[in-house]
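Researcher: Let's do a round of design. I'm pasting the structure tokens now; please hold your answer until I've finished.
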């Protein structure tokens, strides 16, 4: 957030309000391209708003004002339009303007200037601090059916794209002359560290996902991808006891949505958004699972296919330098 100048006071919304006793001026127009945070904080006036807009990657068509240029309605409305475009590009929610756009008959007031500053102020964004998945798998000889759910030892992995899977079921694995079948399920986790100053807030979780990409014989969309909040946040497990505790941790369902809606095509990465309520300062662990696995539903057996009801989704912590993130706005 910019250190706005002038301002009405020294705390809260007064930091954003221009103040009715302050003259409307342009302020310095000396900024680098793009401006730095230090330059914006040292700026003032209308140009400080434009500089913050440009610092965040917007306002390409908006120039700085100066003492020889009159700040007319068209110019001021163009700043508002550029701010709206920036918010759209950044994935922020639309800002609720109350006195914009302005007309030639309107007098510029503190409310106009406040809304421009408020709308260009970036929301608090908290990126995922860690990601991991826990997977359990059971093998059997070719003539036997592996147990489902698997009874094998659960293991933890820490890639940037943790997975959830229900039914590596009747997968034929060949080790030389030895043939095995396997069943498997997994749950994916993301950890966040919410900074000080957040209390009972709602955030939008935005992240990339991909489903069913490894085998063309398996393309099932009959399950929901579920997002849970662990009742008590946990670090990445490192011992078997911690792994088992994470698997069985108490959790609260936040949202469930059909995977075919979230990821319409196979092997394509989609950015999706979920609403996470009641967040406050501190650690947070989110769990992703599919409804079939959580419900203990045994996948359908069909020996004619190499995989049967293979349901696989990847939950990305980072994709193309874009983090899974909570957006508080």
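Researcher: That's everything. Go ahead.
Model: Designed sequence:
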């Amino acid at each position: 957030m910019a250190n706005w100048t002038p301002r009405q006071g020294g705390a809260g919304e007064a930091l954003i309000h221009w103040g009715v006793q302050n003259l409307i001026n342009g302020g310095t127009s000396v900024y680098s391209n793009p401006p730095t945070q230090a330059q914006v904080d040292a700026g003032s006036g209308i140009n400080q708003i434009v500089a913050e807009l440009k610092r965040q990657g917007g306002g390409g068509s908006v120039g700085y004002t100066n003492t020889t240029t009159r700040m007319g309605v068209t110019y001021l409305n163009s700043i508002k339009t550029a701010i709206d475009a920036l918010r759209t590009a950044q994935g922020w929610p639309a800002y609720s303007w109350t006195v914009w756009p302005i007309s030639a008959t309107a007098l510029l007031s503190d409310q106009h200037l406040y809304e421009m500053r408020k709308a260009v102020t970036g929301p608090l964004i908290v990126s995922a601090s860690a990601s991991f998945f826990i997977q359990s798998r059971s093998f059997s000889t070719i003539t036997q059916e592996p147990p489902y759910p698997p009874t094998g030892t659960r293991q933890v992995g820490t890639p940037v794209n943790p997975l959830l899977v229900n039914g590596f079921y009747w997968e034929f694995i060949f080790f030389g002359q030895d043939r095995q079948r396997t069943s498997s399920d997994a749950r994916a986790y993301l950890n966040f560290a919410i900074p000080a100053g957040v209390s009972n807030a709602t955030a939008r979780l935005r992240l990339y996902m991909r489903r069913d990409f490894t085998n063309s014989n398996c393309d099932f969309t009959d399950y929901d991808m579920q997002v849970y909040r662990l009742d008590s946040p946990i670090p990445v497990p490192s011992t078997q006891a911690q792994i088992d505790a994470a698997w069985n941790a108490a959790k609260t369902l936040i949202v469930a949505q059909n995977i075919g809606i979230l990821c319409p095509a196979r092997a394509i990465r989609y950015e999706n958004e979920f609403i996470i309520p009641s967040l406050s300062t501190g650690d947070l662990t989110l769990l992703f699972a599919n409804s079939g696995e959580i419900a203990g539903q045994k996948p359908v057996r069909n020996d004619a296919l190499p995989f049967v009801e293979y349901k696989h989704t990847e939950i990305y912590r980072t994709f193309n330098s874009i983090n899974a993130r909570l957006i508080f706005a």
